[in-house]
């Protein structure tokens, strides 16, 4: 830790925190083992074996759930199915579709209902609660990719990269950087504390991306991307990997415009800033550094197959065909407008695609004629 130790008063504590069982467990752990990295805290908050937010199978996307997501719209499943079909046509023959982070399973079931190519559909899911929910809905669910053989595959993940745990770092004078750890203050409450970097990989990431953090500027760095991609690269042979998420290139995410970082939490549909507000009951997320994602993927031999907005992508793959001419045409059009709108989900989300060598670019970059 940097000397002297001190807790940061970055967090707005005007709102009373909700005492949860997971908060108690984390405090006990810090008491016995000392401060933990924010990455380890976030991993527990989201994926703790019993009390993690995702472990408890939250009602993602429902009216009582913590946030809204494209995945709850049938038209989104239609659009994704068109994209997968177009990717499958480039691959030829039967394909494996691997959805990562299936949430409630609603999106997967929807995609399957619209897929018009021979396929085997499976979902890789970390959360046991969500796995059970997905399996109940009829999905073939995996806990790990370990047993899978390499084959012709299209991977799809909606809002998964943004849920990978992140380290938090802060710029100091003279281009120095320290890390934010989670510790206890003198009242025994969780707080953030500055310390030396827990791994040189954090400085390396900043150097590789030519990021110079201003004094007091905070940035979230996700090192998890490497292991995430290594597993995928092994089994996608040949194939495409398609991510839909919110994020940007490193120079934008780590610009002074985001001097407090991009970490945010959601609790009962409301955005909150205190990551310790209701641990295990709040979702936590940070913008995806697409520069880092590309760099990791390319280092493993994958190629960028396209990067565009959700708006362009869904429009180009033919989402408008979902609207049709039936009696609910008005409601369907509204859904499509929401998913493709400039001021709504259409521009909030990007689509980043990768391919194995020798394949054409990914679907949705140009209108299907
Ligand atoms: C924000 S939710 C999105 C769920 C769904 N894709 C949707 O759009 O509604 C993130 C999902 O990814 C899962 N997840 C997070 N990290 C994962 C990982 N490394 N491997 C597999 N699933 C993961 C979570 O449990 C959850 O199902």
Describe the protein's architecture and organization.
There is one protein chain. This protein has a domain at 70-159 and 223-246 and 288-355: 3-Layer(aba) Sandwich (Rossmann fold). The relative contact order is 0.16. It has helices at 21-33, 38-47, 74-91, 106-114, 128-136, 200-208, 225-235, 250-253, 290-299, 310-317, 329-340, 345-348, and strands at residues 7-8, 36-37, 95-100, 119-124, 141-142, 151-158, 167-171, 177-184, 190-195, 218-221, 236-245, 247-248, 264-267, 270-272, 283-285, 288-289, 303-309, 350-355. The longest helix has 18 residues, at 74-91. It is of the alpha/beta class and 369 residues long. It is globular, with a radius of gyration of 21 Å. Helix content is 32%, strand content 23%. Strand 3, helix 4 and strand 4 form a beta-alpha-beta unit. S-adenosylmethionine binds next to loops.
> Helical region count?
12
Order of helices and strands: EHEHHEHEHEEEEEHEHEEHEEEEHEHHHE
**If classified by CATH, what would the architecture of the domain at 70-159 and 223-246 and 288-355 be?**
3-Layer(aba) Sandwich
Shape: globular
Q: Structural class from helices and strands?
A: alpha/beta
What is the percentage of strand-forming residues?
15-25%
Biggest sheet strand order reads: 5-4-3-6-11-18-17
Ligand identities: S-adenosylmethionine
Task: Report the mean per-residue pLDDT as an integer.
Answer: 93
Distance between the termini: 59 Å
What's the count of strands? 18
CATH class of the domain at 70-159 and 223-246 and 288-355: Alpha Beta
Q: Which radius of gyration do the C-alpha atoms yield? A: 21 Å
Largest sheet: 7 strands, mixed
- At CATH level 3, the topology of the domain at 70-159 and 223-246 and 288-355 is Rossmann fold
The helical percent reads: 25-40%
Low-confidence stretches: 62-66
């Amino acid at each position: 830790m940097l000397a002297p130790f001190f807790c940061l008063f970055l967090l707005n504590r005007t709102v009373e925190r909700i005492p949860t069982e997971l908060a108690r467990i984390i405090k006990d752990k810090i008491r016995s083992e000392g401060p933990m990295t924010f990455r380890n805290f976030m991993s527990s908050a989201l994926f703790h074996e019993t009390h993690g937010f995702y472990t408890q199978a939250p009602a993602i996307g429902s009216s009582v759930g913590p946030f809204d997501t494209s995945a709850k719209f049938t038209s989104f499943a239609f659009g994704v199915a068109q994209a997968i079909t177009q990717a499958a046509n480039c691959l030829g023959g039967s394909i494996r579709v691997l959805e990562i982070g299936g949430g409630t399973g609603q999106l997967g079931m929807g995609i399957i209902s619209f897929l018009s190519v021979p396929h085997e559909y499976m979902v890789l899911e970390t959360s046991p609660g969500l796995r059970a929910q997905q399996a109940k809905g009829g999905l073939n669910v995996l806990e790990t990719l370990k047993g899978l053989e390499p084959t012709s595959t299209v991977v799809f993940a909606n809002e998964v990269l943004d849920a990978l745990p992140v380290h938090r770092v802060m710029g100091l004078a003279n281009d120095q950087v320290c890390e934010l750890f989670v510790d206890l203050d003198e009242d025994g409450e969780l707080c953030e504390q500055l310390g030396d970097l827990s791994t040189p990989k954090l400085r390396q990431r900043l150097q590789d991306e030519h990021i110079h953090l201003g004094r007091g500027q905070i940035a979230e760095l996700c090192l998890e991307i490497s292991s995430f991609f290594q597993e995928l690269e092994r089994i996608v042979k040949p194939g495409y990997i398609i991510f839909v998420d919110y994020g940007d290139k490193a120079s934008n995410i780590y610009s002074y415009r985001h001097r407090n970082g991009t970490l945010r939490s959601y609790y009962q549909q409301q955005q909150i800033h205190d990551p310790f507000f209701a641990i295990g009951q709040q979702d936590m997320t940070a913008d995806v550094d697409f520069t880092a994602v590309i760099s990791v993927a390319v280092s493993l031999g994958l190629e960028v197959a396209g990067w565009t907005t959700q708006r362009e992508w869904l429009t180009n793959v033919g989402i408008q065909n979902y609207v049709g001419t039936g009696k609910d045409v008005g409601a369907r059009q509204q859904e499509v407008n929401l998913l493709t709108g400039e001021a709504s989900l259409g521009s909030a989300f990007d689509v980043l695609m990768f391919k194995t060598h020798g394949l054409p670019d990914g679907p949705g970059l140009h209108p299907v004629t």
